[in-house]
Amino acid sequence: MIRVVVVDDEQLVRAGLRLILEAAEDITVVGEAADGSGALEQAHRLRPDVVLLDVRMPGVDGLTVAPDVVAAGPKVIMLTTFDLDEYVHRALRAGAVGFLLKDTPPRELATAVRTVAAGNAMLAPTVTRRLISSFADRGPARRDAARQRLAPLTARELEIVREVARGHGNAEIARRLTMSEATVKAHVSRALAKLQAGNRVQLAILVHDADLL
Amino acid sequence: MIRVVVVDDEQLVRAGLRLILEAAEDITVVGEAADGSGALEQAHRLRPDVVLLDVRMPGVDGLTVAPDVVAAGPKVIMLTTFDLDEYVHRALRAGAVGFLLKDTPPRELATAVRTVAAGNAMLAPTVTRRLISSFADRGPARRDAARQRLAPLTARELEIVREVARGHGNAEIARRLTMSEATVKAHVSRALAKLQAGNRVQLAILVHDADLL
DNA sequence: GTCCGGCCCGGACGGCGGGTAGGGGTCTTC
DNA sequence: GAAGACCCCTACCCGCCGTCCGGGCCGGAC
């Protein structure tokens, strides 16, 4: 049996959600709250498996308490009317594993509760769409390209270039790797030639794009 | 009526998918293919709304043709047995808007087809979960922090620091912005002081983290 | 063995990068 | 309207960066 707490400032909405969820035989609503602080208290006291958390509420809103609720143990599904980018970002960073709009069909709501209870995630289709595009944009496209450009470097060279990308000077790198500063310069110079870069800054950019730190 | 093409190397799977989808009154399967090249041909000839594309197939596999199929117009849903990270990455980068596992319940499959046909996206719960965590990890956490650190800079200083982050030297920056090299140095120096950075490399890293180009 | 090639190391020189000081412009503040 | 603060620009000095050159080391080819 999946134990759920429902949080929304409107009693009518809470009642509706309760009806929908209780209709599923494997789900039971063990508590309700009307604002963020109530949600946190219930999460600690009742130890539910899932918390349905409304975004906009008077007092402490849902996005604000979301990190604390997550820390208390239960999986969190955010519930809102509008899928604003900022809402989604904050919710996901807070550790929410669900983000649904209030026009979600009842059946899907129960499915979402089961999904997150099982350790997986469920998002509204529009949210998923934008998450994908943001992933495809800043995704591993540049990363792989950068790694491929860094391929011709020797192990030692790469090691030094990584130090460069940390913003360290040649003298400092020499100390860290216990070698002469002249040697560091030579390695950097070789790397610059191999990568057809003019600056050590460009080396740093490459390493950064390649996600090496 | 949503027009769908089903692509899988096993005829039995194709038949099963067709049965499932045709059971929905608003969906019709207009074509089938057994490999990637067939999928591409059908996509061009039949102009379907959605293509269900298996990942592993003899000959041209699904991930390889996915970009071309997407370019041909239809929405692409990838279908696979295992949700390997590499599969998901390549599929999303290729422009797929769906990624489902073959153990998806029939009802969800029809839902997914409708969802992507409407311009949204649908992923298997396990895929969604990892997409979220990768988003939360490398998400706007550092980005916002970096922007906050860059806040004290004046407009001109930021402009110059961005040039620095592109790997340009002071002389080149001076040419681009039509000012003296000495001026560029002064601005860089101010920026270094304000941001408590020692190197121009560290400036570049900050700008890069802040996603400013 | 000997030659060859790649990698790691080091030294000496020219040029770029960064620090300091100061002048001119505009907008607030009293 | 004068003082002050802020931003933008410029000029000079020094240290760091990058290049060129060369030497020691290890592996494979013949």
CATH homologous superfamily designation of the largest domain in chain A: Response regulator
Largest sheet of chain A: 6 strands, parallel
CATH topology (level 3) name of the largest domain in chain A: Rossmann fold
Strand fraction of chain A equals 5-15%
Give the proportion of residues in helices of chain A: 55-70%
What is the H-and-E element order of chain A? Answer: EHEHEHEHEHEHHHHHH
* Structural class by secondary-structure content of chain A: alpha/beta
The CATH architecture of the largest domain in chain A can be given as: 3-Layer(aba) Sandwich
Describe the structure in your own words.
The structure is a homodimer of 213-residue chains. Chain A has 213 residues and is α/β, with parallel strands linked by helices. The first copy, chain A, folds into two domains: 2-137, 3-Layer(aba) Sandwich (Rossmann fold); 140-209, Arc Repressor Mutant, subunit A (Orthogonal Bundle). Helices cover 58% and strands 14% of the residues of chain A. The first copy, chain A, is built from eleven helices and six strands. The first copy, chain A, has helices at residues 11-22, 36-46, 62-72, 85-94, 106-117, 125-137, 140-150, 155-165, 170-176, 181-195, 200-209, and strands at 2-7, 27-33, 50-54, 75-80, 98-101, 122-123. In chain A, helix 8 (155-165) crosses helix 10. The radius of gyration of chain A is 25 Å and the shape is elongated. The mean pLDDT of chain A is 89. Chain A binds chain B through residues 89, 92-93, 95, 97, 115, 118-123, 125-126, 128-129, 131-132, 134-136, 139-141, 164-165, 167-169, 197-202, 204-205, 208, and chain B through 89, 92-93, 95, 97, 115, 118-123, 125-126, 128-129, 131-132, 134-136, 139-141, 164-165, 167-169, 197-202, 204-205, 208. Chain A binds a DNA duplex (30 and 30 nucleotides) through helix 8 and helix 10.
